[in-house]
Amino acid sequence: MPNTSITFGALLVLIGIIGYGYGLMNGNASLTALIPAVFGIVMAILGFASRSNERMRKHLMHAAVVVALLGFIAAAGRLVMKASELTASAGVISQLAMAIICLLFVTLAVKSFGDARRSGSS
């Protein structure tokens, strides 16, 4: 799971950087485009930390899931609030990608935690 956290974190960072770069190229860059990158950096740090600290791995991975869940809620909530006026803009695409990536990570983590519990390894 630590490698998954790092990978999904890197994807979120990439989404943030691409969104911000797109804004720069169009002359309307906004720091809010980097929000996915912030979530991604935190998830990647938790992934790296859990790889190097076996005793804390379970806690760190649970923290990564909380970060991803908050990322999903933030991105999906924003999309739902503006559902009536959504267009295929870069911001909407970035929020949708963030929501999907975060939800996928949460789903994979919950499955992994369940598998670990069933197999008896804590």
What's the total number of strands?
Answer: 0
Average of per-residue pLDDT values:
89
- Percent strand equals under 5%
Largest sheet: none
Could you walk me through the main structural features you see in this protein, from its secondary elements to its overall organization?
The chain is elongated, with a radius of gyration of 16 Å. The mean pLDDT is 89. It is mainly alpha-helical and 122 residues long. The two termini are 13 Å apart.
Draw up the topology in text.
Elements: H1 2-25, H2 35-52, H3 57-81, H4 90-119
Kindly list the characteristics that best describe this protein:
0% strand; mainly alpha
Brief sketch in words of this structure:
The protein is an all-alpha fold and 122 residues long. The protein has helices spanning 2-25, 35-52, 57-81, 90-119. 80% of the residues lie in helices and 0% in strands.
